Structure formats: structure tokens, C-alpha cells
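User: Sequence for AraC family transcriptional regulator below. C-alpha cells please.
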Amino acid sequence: MSVGTTRIIKAPQGLTKTEFKIGSLKMKGISVIDFCFDAEATKGTMFLKDHLLLIVLQGVYTIRYGDQVHKVRSNEMMFLQKSIAIEFEKSGELDSGDGLNGLMFFLKEEILDDFIKLGDIKPTYPESPVPVSVNPVNTCILEYVESLEPYFDNPDEIVEGLVKVKVMELLFHVIDANEQISSQLLQPKRKEWNNIDKVVEENLMNPVSLHDLAYLSGRSLSTFKRDFQVMYNTSPIKWIRNRRLDKAKELLTNTSLSVTDVCFSTGFENAAHFSKVFKDRFGFPPSELKKGSGLKRTM
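Assistant: C-alpha cells for AraC family transcriptional regulator:
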């Protein structure tokens, strides 16, 4: 799997444009529960805007986060914390010929807050937060998954209130079954501000907006822009764009990646826009670097 050759999907919003999702239950127009089935292997990259609980019923789901590789097999579940970029590869079980069948539950902070109040739960900080963890699925969770099947027959007819109730039901099953996932899900929001430089560096090549970066740093958008200006003496849009373009130039010069691959791997989401801003910065389009004619002009 390679980040450099795959467009990054912003999940869950970006999943509506992908070919592997075949059923979805939504709240406020955003996917909350997705059912997916693949007859063939599929791979790509996602930036998770919400926590994700993945339950695999059949097949193998491989996740790469940094230098860690995790495999989720039939009747296992994986919890992934929000605000991370992951590579994924989905495939059927070896020698079985079957595809992958699973469910993805996207868990927003508001849902978790409501669940904590509903269950009168006193959350605690985990001693060592784990961004990705794999655990077995018990009988109660499997029966819960079966109870969702009728909802995917007519998803547009399911009211949001019922979707929320089903998510709450899942959370009760999960915290009852696994203490580690429970502590990861239900830790209270940290009040301290994250350092702007740390947040920006960690997400520089991800397709995140300024709103996303402000949220991750614990600031409002206006405060984020003001604090960034003080720290870097320039606007966040200009600084981030130039850093991405510098990285793009490096990749175009030193790798065999195409212009489109470099565009998506450096956080840009539109190839035409990428080519325009690249030319504005360096004086020639990125395609010239691939042909070699632009290299002399950079010396």
C-alpha cells in the first residue's frame, strides 16, 4: 500500500463518492453506519474526521497507520481514533473466494457526549492512548449486527432518531465487551490547547481544512488564524500551500509518481488547481518536471 499513489478519502463525507459502500444510515446528511461488501480487493487512504469502529464479518481488512500494520479478520472489530490518516486494503479470506463484508460506525463527539449522559458514565483518561486497536467480537455484538440488516433494505425511510438509538445500543455492547475500547471512546475532551505547529505538521499532507486544523488545536477558526499569523508571520493558507508545493516539487523531482499522484499525496484535492498554484510558485507547470525540462530552471 502506498499513500503516494492513492487519493485520500475524507471519511465519512468522502465515502459517498466511492464504489465500495453499498448501504448507509445517516444523521444530518452524514454517514453514521455504513455497510460495505467487496467481491474484489480494494485499497486506498482515508483521513478520519470522526472516531471509527470497524466490524468485519467476512474477509480481511488491513490497516496501516504510520509504521504499524493491523489486520482485522472475520468476527473481529477495530477501533480507530479520529484525526488520523490511514491506509487500508480490503480482501476476501485466502482460498475462500469470498469477498469482504463489514460495517463501519462513525462516532462523533456529540454522540459520545450524549451516550455518557445517558449511561451516567464517568469516563477516565486511558493510561496510554492507542490510536488503533483490534479486538474480538462477542455474541451480543454479532446479534446486534444482525438486527441492523432490515434497516439497510430501506435506509432512506429510517428516521434519524432511530439511527441514534441503534448507535447508542452499539456503544453499550462495546463498553460491556471491551474495557480498552471503552476507555479510548469515552475519555473526556482535553481542555488544553494543542500546539499549532504540532497540529499543522502532523496533518500537513492530509486533505484537511483550516476549520479542521482549528478544531484539532482547540481553537476557533478566527483564533487559530490570529495565533498562526503571530507564530509564522504569514497566513496559514499561504504557509501550508507553500510547504505542500515544496514537498510536491521534491516528489516530482525524485520519484516516479505522476503529477496526479503527487497532487493527492500532498493534500491537494484538485489536479487543475494544483497545477495552477504550482506554476504560480515556481514559474512552470508540474508536468515540466516530469519531462525534465523544469529541472534546470530550479537550479
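The longest strand covers residues 30-38.
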